[in-house]
């Protein structure tokens, strides 16, 4: 995880310097500091720890399927926290994701079932 933080910092540094040079300085206040801390602790470190634990318990192939559910959880949290409205395109997207996961599950079951019969 340390390498990804270092790489991310190095990659974003030129953009930060460019914005600062153009006069768009990020104000140092409670909101900006708490946002950075929240992003660093929860969205980065804690998320990596939880993901690594899930992979160790469930295995990579099964845990990897949940990556496709991130947009669904994002939409649900946006409706809950930001009072966003779910529109038709959101429901279509959710349906496509769920259908894709279901089709993949069926295909895996068929493959594992046909290999047992041989």
Short description:
This protein is 82% helix and 0% strand.
Summarize the structure in words:
By secondary structure, the chain is mostly helical. Helices cover 82% and strands 0% of the residues. It is extended, with a radius of gyration of 20 Å. The termini are far apart. The relative contact order is 0.05.
SSE sequence, one letter per element: HHHHH
Biggest β-sheet, characterized? none
Which structural class matches the secondary elements?
mainly alpha
Low-confidence stretches: none
Number of strands: 0
Shape: extended
Q: Write down the overall mean pLDDT.
A: 85
Rg to the nearest angstrom?
20 Å
Residues in β-strands, percent: under 5%
Helix amount: over 70%
Question: What is the helix tally?
Answer: 5
End-to-end distance, in Å?
A: 43 Å
Protein traits:
single chain; 118 residues; mainly alpha
């Amino acid at each position: 995880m340390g390498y990804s933080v270092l790489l991310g910092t190095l990659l974003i540094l030129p953009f930060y310097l460019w914005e600062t040079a153009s006069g768009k300085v990020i104000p140092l206040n409670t909101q900006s500091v708490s946002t950075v801390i929240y992003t660093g602790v929860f969205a980065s470190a804690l998320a990596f720890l939880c993901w690594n634990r899930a992979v160790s318990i469930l295995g990579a192939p099964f845990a990897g399927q949940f990556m496709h559910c991130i947009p669904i959880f994002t939409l649900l949290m946006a409706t809950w926290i930001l009072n966003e409205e779910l529109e038709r395109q959101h429901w279509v997207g959710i349906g496509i994701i769920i259908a894709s996961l279901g089709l993949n599950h069926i295909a895996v079951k068929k493959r594992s079932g046909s290999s047992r019969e041989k």
